[in-house]
Amino acid sequence: MRITLAQTSPKLNRSNLEDAVSIINTCKNETDLIVFAELSLNGYSLQDKLYEDAWKIDELDVLKDLSLNVDIVVGAAIRDGNNFKNSALYFSKGRLLSKHDKVHLPNYGMFEEARYFKAGNIFESFSSKHGKVSMAVCEDLWHKSVHTNLINNSPDYIIVLVASPARGFSDNGLEIEDKWYEVIKTVASECKAKLIFVNRVGFEDGLGFWGGSCIVNEDAEILHKLPRYEKAVKTFEI
Question: What pLDDT digit, counting tens, does each position of 58-85 carry?
C-alpha cells in the first residue's frame, strides 16, 4: 500500500481547498491514500472566522470526485446546522465514506477550541478498500478512554490528524515531539495496527507548528518520517 503524507502549512482562508486539490492531482496516480493534517482546509486559529470559512459537506464535492482515483483524508471545520465540528473526513470511491468529529476539544493555555466547536461523541471504525480504519483528531489520542475505544474497534489502520504547536524546547530536542511519538507508538502497539500521524507546519498568531508526520507499525516502530518545520509531501510504501 502506498501512503502519501501531506505536511502542509494551511492559511486562515478557504484557499486551502485549492491547494489540497493541486497536491492530490499531482500525487493521485502514484499513491493509494493521501492524508492531510487537522483543519488542513481552514487553518487552526479560526475563532470568529468559522462563521464565514467553515465548510458544508456539499462544498467539498471536488474531493468526492478526486476520490474515484485515490482515497483522501482531510481535516476541516464543518458547519453542522448552527454548530461547527472539527472533523476528519475520509473520501473514497466518489463519496464521503466516513467522518469523525473531534471528541476532546482542548480549552486550556493556548487552546480554546471548546469555545468555538461542538464536540463529537463517538469513535467508530469503518471498512475501506485497504482494510478497517479508525480516525482520531489530535487531543483525542491523549485520553486513555480513547485508547480503549480504539482497541475495541480493532482497526488495521489508525489515522491521526494533528495541529500541534511546537513547545518544550530543550538541548535534547522538542518535548512535545517526544510526547507525541510516545503516545502514537503506544496506541499502535496496543491496537496492533499501523498508525498514520500527520501534523501541519507553519505559523499562525504566534503559534509555530512542528510537523514530524510519520507512519508507525504494529511493533511501535517509526517506519517513515517527515522533517520538522518544513512543508513536505511524500509517498511511502508500507
Answer: 999 999 999 999 999 999 999 999 999 9
